[in-house]
Amino acid sequence: MSVLQVTLPDGSRREVAAGTTPRQIAESIGTGLARAAVAARVNGEIWDLDRPLERDSSLAILTDRDPEALEVLRHSSAHILATAVRELFPSAGIGFGPPIEDGFYYDFQVDRPFTPEDLQRLEAKMAEVAARDFPFVREVVDRAEANRRFADDPLKLERIAELGNDETITIYTDGPFVELCRGPTPLVVKNGSKTWLSVS
Fold first, then answer.
1. Which CATH class is domain 69-199?
2. The pTM is what?
């Protein structure tokens, strides 16, 4: 089994097995840190807590006190919004939902604009979805598998076709919602010529 060197913000180092996650390292440091953890900074990039480490790394565990964690929380909230929309409006086309400077949004392709009453229902459904506490599960897939998984979703197929040959394709699942997603980093959104409804 490979052993990795992990350097923490205070300069201390820990030896861990390859495949150890930032969450597991947070748990080894203390239960308080593990409970407060939102994301991790690994070699300068923001990662979700359950992504396995594969090489020697610098690691910082981010909590809600860290400005970078806010973007991750907003990104997760966007997924919760999309889950709520999918449950209340099953025929809605799901675009992409990145965090932005002052919140987050998701693009939906729908037959009619959402009404104020719809937005109230969505807010209540989001609270239900969040209370279920689904884990966000990350999968790395090849292009063929991504195309297979989203064969019935022309919006996702269009995005997959735009990805470069050297780009890592990841799928995130939270409960019933499966999404083509890069993870807790900003997403590039291309609206093209389609008609979209954005919910802020």
1. alpha beta
2. 0.75
Please name which of 119, 96, 99, 91 lies closest in space to residue 107, comparing C-alpha atoms.
96
Residue 81 CB neighbours (<10 A) = 21
Question: CA-CA distance, 166 to 182, in Å (whole number)?
Answer: 14
Return the residue matching tokens 């840190």.
Answer: 33
Give the bridge partners for 99, in sequence order.
Answer: 104
Structure-block tokens of residue 63: 């909590």
Please answer whether residues 8 and 16 qualify as being in contact, where contact means their C-beta atoms are separated by less than 8 angstroms: no
Q: What is the pLDDT of residues 129-170, one digit of tens each?
A: 999 988 888 899 999 999 999 999 988 999 999 999 889 999
Residue 136 pairs with which residues in a beta bridge? 174
Q: Which residues contact 27 (CB under 8 A, 6 or more apart)?
A: 34
Fold of 3-65: Ubiquitin-like (UB roll) (3.10.20)
